Amino acid sequence: SSNYRLSRTSSFREEEIFLRQASYGSCGSRNTSPLSRMGSRNTSPRQKAAIKTKPRGLDEETAASFGKSVQPDVQMEDSIWAELPEDLLNEILARVPPFIMFRLRSVCRRWNSIFQDRSFLKFHSQVPSHGPCLLTYWKNSQVPQCSVFSLPLKQWFRIPFGFLPAWAFWLVGSSGGLVCFSGLDGYNFKTLICNPLTQKWRTLPSMHYNQQRQLVMVVDRKDRSFKVIATSDIYGDRSLPTEVYDSKINKWLIHETMPAVNLCSSKMAFCDSRLYLETLSPLGLLMYRLDSGHWEHIPAKFPRSLLDGYLVAGTQKRLFLVGRIGLYSTLQSMKIWELDHLKFIWVEVSRMPPRYFRALFRLSAERFECFGQDNLICFTSWNQGKGLLYDVDKKVWTWIAGFALQPYNSQVCFYEPRFDPAV
């Protein structure tokens, strides 16, 4: 397809042979099976290794192979793969990494339509997740752009975002394979939901009080639905009631109004069906229960000498606080605390090593972003063009390769690539 251009690298040559052979078999060539040409035409075990080329589809952002070992080609009998049952084909494709699956859309119409097939989506929803990714979004000459860093593959991929509308919007976040945006279409505040892999999107109905809000999206994979919570912005009208969109009924429901408090920031964390915000007066946390629709205050005082803090949601009801401490640049450091839900105190769980802190923040007032998913915490510093990842369970710090190649004005969030969530 002419829509997908990419350069060749030695680390991805094997997959293009796979795609060429697959397209021959499924688009009217010698063998009619979609997988008839997945292997080599010569089935002799003494056949030499095929020349490896990069697959067509997404643009790769980096040319590094990250030291991945190249596996030898597996020889497959054409007569066997030509008779592959349809359900077995779907089960095999459901286990292919999502970004390789995205490339297969350009092979032929047959494979482009298979990702909308109910049988394939059923198998795809049952396989384990590909793993967390980092999604960066920006606009280049008013054209939406998107790159995704796959943590399991340790590579950047470009996803075409030209399918989105032209009105101004910004990234809200991602959950369960869906990505949420909000913005202004003229004078109207709108919310947009899309699936980057299926290239499907739609705008949600207008809220009862259609003003700019702070939003968070939550996906429930069990019943294949999602909700969007609209709270009051730190600089917005605090008298507006909380509204919750439910995809099951396609409506916004009015809930309790947020109490009159002084918020530290508009940053929020959703953990265990609860939404948390930091408050200065009264000092502590403001919690919203999604099941009951009520707000309540938690008297969890912040650690001493905390300069700037971010709430980060973890797994199994874990809530983290990440922030810098210290009054002077030479004494500053970054710490991570976890909330004790019984005693309402913050317990220190980790501290960023000095060498990482000095590399990430060269100035005492360096602006940074912090967000998390599945006990993974990501730190970004656009001034330094660096991204740092911390695994809370393994207690391991790692740099994000190729992060400096992303535009300065990018917006970032964690993202789980999936084909099955519907907008």
TrEMBL record:
Known InterPro entries for this protein?
F-box-like_dom_sf, F-box_dom, Kelch-typ_b-propeller, KIB1-4_b-propeller, SCF_F-box_component
Pfam families under this entry? Beta-prop_KIB1-4, F-box
Record region (Disordered)? 25-64
What superkingdom heads the lineage?
A: Eukaryota
Q: Which CDD domains match?
A: F-box_AtFBW1-like (cd22157)
**Gene3D superfamilies given for it?**
1.20.1280.50, Kelch-type beta propeller
Q: Which keywords does this chain's UniProt record carry?
A: Kelch repeat, Repeat
Q: Where are stretches of biased composition, namely Polar residues?
A: 25-46
Say if the entry is tagged with keyword Repeat. yes
- Every F-box domain range: 78-123
- What protein name is recorded for this chain? F-box domain-containing protein
Instruction: State the organism's lineage.
Output: Eukaryota, Viridiplantae, Streptophyta, Embryophyta, Tracheophyta
